[in-house]
Design brief:
single chain; 7 helices; 76% helix
Length: 146
């Protein structure tokens, strides 16, 4: 079952990336370029990272509130389904989850750079599948995605 989910995992990223939506990791890595060019300060970098992080956390909170109530109210999922999903990650130590998230974040940053350098859609799709399949099959904690 996990292999099937790992095979499906890249689909959402194909839609997001080819649809030109920005991933959190993409936005935060591109913000480093003005620092490297010495045209911006670290303060401005941390300010933009803080704004992006805060906006993502607010969006995550709103999405979680909707996801926690709407499917149950519509009888699409039973509350026990959330227990099953949560039981997959809560038995790990915090440092394992943090290390997994760092590795997944690094892979997502790499994905952002690789898709930018790809010249056509098929190359981008191949890169997206390759990188996100690794995240999915390894069970990494990707930006709250798992």
């Amino acid at each position: 079952m996990n292999l099937i989910l790992a095979i499906c995992y890249p689909l959402g990223f194909i839609f997001v990336i080819l649809g030109k939506s920005e991933l959190f990791t993409e936005h935060t890595t591109v913000a480093v370029l003005p620092i490297l060019a010495k045209s911006a300060s670290f303060g401005s970098l941390f300010r933009i990272w803080g704004i992006v992080l805060l906006a993502n956390l607010v969006g995550l909170f709103i999405f979680c509130c909707i996801l926690a109530t709407l499917p149950i109210n519509m009888e699409i999922i039973k509350p026990e389904g959330y227990d099953h999903i949560a039981s997959k990650v809560i038995h790990y130590k915090w440092y394992n989850i943090a290390g997994s998230a760092v590795l997944a974040g690094w892979l997502m940053g790499l994905l952002g750079w690789l898709t930018t350098s790809a010249s056509d859609s098929m190359s981008r799709i191949f890169i997206i599948i390759l990188v996100t399949f690794v995240i999915g099959v390894a069970g990494l904690q990707c930006c709250g995605c798992r």
